[in-house]
Amino acid sequence: MSSDQIWILAAFVFYLLVMLSIGILYFRRTKNTEDYFLGGRKLGGWVAALSAQASDMSGWLLMGLPGAIYAFGTGQIWIAVGLAVGTLLNWVFVSSRLRRYTLKAGNSLTLPSYFENRFRDKTKILRVASSIFIMVFFLVYTASGFSAGAKLFSSVFGIDYTVALTIGVLVILAYTFLGGFMAVCVTDFIQGMMMLLALLTVPIFALSFLGGWGNMTDALSGSNVNVASFLNPMVDGTGAIGPVSIISQLGWALGYFGMPHILVRFMAIRSHSEVKKSRVIAMVWVALSLGAACMVGVIGRAYLPTVLQGSDTENVFIQMILQLFTKDLALPFIGGIFLCGILAAVMSTADSQLLVTASSISEDIYKGVVAKNASEKSRLLVSRITVAVVAVIAFLVALDPQSSVMGLVSNAWAGFGAAFGPVIILSLFWRRSNGAGAIAGMISGGLTVIIWDYLPLVSGQTLGTVTGFYSLVVGFAVGLLVMIAVSLVTKKPEQGILDEFDQVKNMKHLGEEETISAK
């Protein structure tokens, strides 16, 4: 191992020890399942905002998006635009009302329990169906995070992919297993700050070494790209971008309405005033980080001496940091800290996904269906066991070193957005929506994504491959229309449900007394 790698390793060890210390600290403070899953609903504005966005963006922000732009040009920025729009809409329209509704609807700790309480579903179908979708899609999503972390360790230290994958999984598993929601949120806050610092600093330094924007475009010419096409947002690697491609990329915005690991942050915020603060912080963070990630892809293509190929394009940010801090500046420990920003992106999403999956199994399957009188101690134990089991399965899914971070995230994002997005929106804003509609909408939306992306229905190809249309857009539309149609042709919600809806709608915010009484 070289001296540079030793300094970088020292930075990694320091960072990982801090994360584990936070897990141990909150392990001692976790007394019950509400602490473990929602931190007792005591999340402050800064922590809520940055933990929500850090858990949202994942390794995709620092690897998938820059890699796509590096490979195909700025025609890939439409995904970033869609995500920015989706973030804004989610914080403005969903965050506050979802927080209020989950308190009023039986102090719901998870999305499946909220769905069941909101629609008074005595059949348990909503709870079980949503829990199954969470398990299936989060396995894929968590695997994407593990894969990104393994690629980071493997690229930096030259170690075997499987060994790197094992190291990353063990660390994430440890502090999530111990500390639960607050450990995850506090670590995500730190990780969100590190991600933003790395994204803002590295492209600026790299651009300065290139000698400014003019010299950068000259360097692009030498990297086997047509500069005019590469910098044209209406062109990608295969030519002019058509409306299907733009709609599909902008359609990523729809995914936000169904992301359990983001929505659970809204449920846990301390007060209405903290929601408003979080909204502003989150939007500033998203605008800066997405813009900087796009610049990493553009500047990286000009800055790196060797053109990356295939799945290695997703390592562009890693290679920029190594080039900048081990060769141009000779500050390997600082480079290690910035590389920890990429590790932070990976960890901040994987830990949240593990926790949401654990909450779904413990609260919605174990307590909700199997053992309704389960004690707090047994539910906490089931939660921690679930974290470990899901991590092992996701580890197995991520074992393929050629797996694409972008592809895995895209599939999971579509699944959640289509299955849960329409149900969340209509449950919060449409008085006439009912349980039958929610069940039909959720199942039809989720199955549409699975059919669209995985079944080779046309000459051995999937519908997604043949049409080029992102499954999220199709699945979301199907789920929304089916839920509306089924709600209209089935029985109107009972008066108690309508009264509860009106109370939440007419309430500007929940005061402390209402918060306590709702519990």
Short description:
This protein is an all-alpha fold. The chain has helices spanning 3-29, 33-38, 45-72, 77-104, 111-119, 125-157, 161-210, 213-221, 227-230, 243-250, 260-268, 272-303, 316-328, 332-370, 376-397, 405-429, 435-454, 463-467, 471-489, 495-506, 512-518, and strands at residues 235-236, 239-240. The longest helix has 50 residues, at 161-210.
Strands, count: 2
Order of strands across the main sheet: 1-2
**Mean of all residue-level pLDDT scores:** 83
Radius of gyration: 23 Å
Number of helices: 21
Portion of residues within helices? over 70%
The sequence of SSEs as H and E is HHHHHHHHHEEHHHHHHHHHHHH
Strand content: under 5%
Largest sheet: 2 strands, antiparallel
3D architecture notes:
The protein has helices spanning 3-29, 33-38, 45-72, 77-104, 111-119, 125-157, 161-210, 213-221, 227-230, 243-250, 260-268, 272-303, 316-328, 332-370, 376-397, 405-429, 435-454, 463-467, 471-489, 495-506, 512-518, and strands at 235-236, 239-240. With 519 residues, it is mainly alpha-helical. The chain is globular and about 70 Å long.
